Each structure stands twice: as C-alpha cells, then as structure tokens.
Amino acid sequence: MKLWNFGAAALFLAFTLLQLNDPDPVYWTVVYGGTTMVALGQGLDRDSRFWTGACVGAVAVSMISTAPGFSDYLMSGDPGSIFGDMASEDYAENSREFLGLTLAFVLLATYSIRSSRKSR
To answer: What angle separates helix 2-18 from helix 25-43, to the nearest 10 degrees?
Structure first.
C-alpha cells in the first residue's frame, strides 16, 4: 500500500509542477500540492483528517466550477478535442482540469474513508 501512496504522491507532484506555467498557477499548485502532501502523508503513515478534508473541499469546489466546461466537452461529440492546444475549444482547459480534479477527488475520498474507518 505504501508503494501505491508514494506513486500517487509522485503523480500529483507532476500535476503540481505542470501547473506552474498555468495562467492561474497559485490556486492549482495549492490544490494539487495539497493532494500530493496528503498522499505522501498516507505513505508515511501520517494521515491528517483535517488536511484531507480541506483538500477534499478545495477539489470539490473546483470540480463544481469546471463542470460546465466538462459538460460542454461531453456534448461536443469530439472526444479528441481536449488533446489539442488550449485555444482549440473554450472547454478544453476546463475539461482537462475537471478530469485531474476527479482523480484527486477519488484519491482523497478514498483516504478520507480509510482514515475514518481506522479511527473507529
């Protein structure tokens, strides 16, 4: 399980570093960096229910804000459009962000559930 946690931390560290050239890097670096730290903490057996919950909240808010763009992508009928450049479609960036956030949400929710089961 530790290998899985460290692998997740490495993946989200890569996501964090990719956000450094984003037009709004601070927010995305905090969201993905927080997910990285939670995964790393899990790998080191140092989980924090508070920080996991805070990250779940931040990711959920971001998912809500990017969901309309992802919906537009689903309705576009062009599944390859999110692989083009950012200027190709208005919804491309929001769709990519939504998918990354979905991965973060699933990971963080799993950690949160596991953490609550441990404390019983």
So the answer is: 170
List the structure tokens of 60. 């959920």
How much is the pLDDT for 48? Answer: 84
Ramachandran angles phi, psi of 48, nearest 5°: -125, 115
CB-neighbour burial class of residue 71 (10 A; exposed 0-12, middle 13-18, buried 19+): middle
- On the CB side of 95, CA atoms within 13 Å amount to 22
pLDDT tens digit sequence for 33-49: 999 999 999 999 988 88
Please check whether residue 98 is in contact with residue 70, taking contact to mean a CB–CB distance below 8 angstroms. yes
Cα angle, residue 55 at apex, residues 52 and 58 outer, rounded to 5°: 155
